From TrEMBL:
PROSITE patterns: FE2OG_OXY
Species this chain originates from: Citrus x changshan-huyou
Domain Fe2OG dioxygenase: 188-289
One Gene Ontology molecular-function label: oxidoreductase activity
Keyword terms of this UniProt record: Iron, Metal-binding, Oxidoreductase
The family this protein is said to belong to: Belongs to the iron/ascorbate-dependent oxidoreductase family.
A Pfam family hit: DIOX_N
Name of this protein: Fe2OG dioxygenase domain-containing protein
UniProt feature coiled coil, ranges: none
Keyword RNA-binding (UniProt): no
Metal-binding recorded as keyword: yes
Domain of life, per lineage: Eukaryota
Amino acid sequence: MGDVDPAFIQPPEFRPKVQNNMEIDDEIPVIDLSTDPKQLVLEVGHACQKWGFFQVINHGAPSELKARIEKAAKEFFDQPIEEKQKVKRDEVHPMGYHDQEHTKNVRDWKEVFDFWLQDPTFLPASPEPDDKELRRLTNQWPEYPLGFRELCEDYAREVEKLAYKLLELISLSLGLSADRLQGYFKEQTTFLRFNYYPPCPYPELALGVGPHKDGGALTVLAQDDVGGLQIRRKSDGEWIPVKPIPDAYIINIGDATQVWSNDKYESPEHRVVVNTEKERFSIPFFFFPAHHAMLKPFDEIVNEQNPARYREFNWGKFVVARNRSDYKKQNVENIQIRHFRVVD
Ligand SMILES: O=C(O)CCC(=O)C(=O)O
Ligand SMILES: [Fe+2]
């Protein structure tokens, strides 16, 4: 990734102001999960409403496992491209290695390795509403580093516990019962990703990940100490960096929660800036509902004063329609939740 490849060049309005990249800002809430439960629900609710982002500490997931998985991720990406290509993603295997990720049709300055939490995972065969066929999707695992699969699976199960804990807190913070959202995840379509951002010779033109919103209920992200993740502040549109905190996880709301909450919690826009010196790793856990889940604002939340802003849609069809553009670069915009918005 040495020369200036036009595929990576962001349109001028998306280019980052490099001089401000690493400025630290403490505004994004840091929530201690060992706090008194009532207080915790209030803090989570406040953070979800204001930012859609927060960091958690004292979360219960073992830090030793996170350290091991970060080391293994580095070992995997340090291999020659031919080794990584042995597990490359294709139309049959949407999980695996990939270095051609695009966000809004501009190439991201990164490589990824993806795996399903549940193996196999089931998704609709096509986005067509009448097509009832399902695809059975399985993971691909590299031969090296040794024990990679077991480590990834152990890590995923630990983060899953944390994701359920957060789901409960979010549910309570919306005035719903603690287990109100759980049923949507029995046959979840969750996947985990290793993001590897190599140093970039033109960080003022390219992005590690272009501006986007995550699709699912929530994302649980581990990042290393380099920094680069930025959130667009709702009040003024400024890009605010997320400070790396050792052993914390970064949590953000996704589109599904935006719909469930009838826009009380908005799925926040975020991006990743790169730098000329340091490589960076991050590991998001995208907590996605089951393919058969039907999503709409909760009846407990909508009323005459606050009518439903979305019509019901199927999660599986939504995800498949979104992913289709990963393979065929499309000129039309990806499907978004606002396409299900009820016009006022
Ligand atoms: O690398 C990061 O910090 C965030 C990556 C991200 O937003 C994503 O993979 O969806
Ligand atoms: Fe993201």
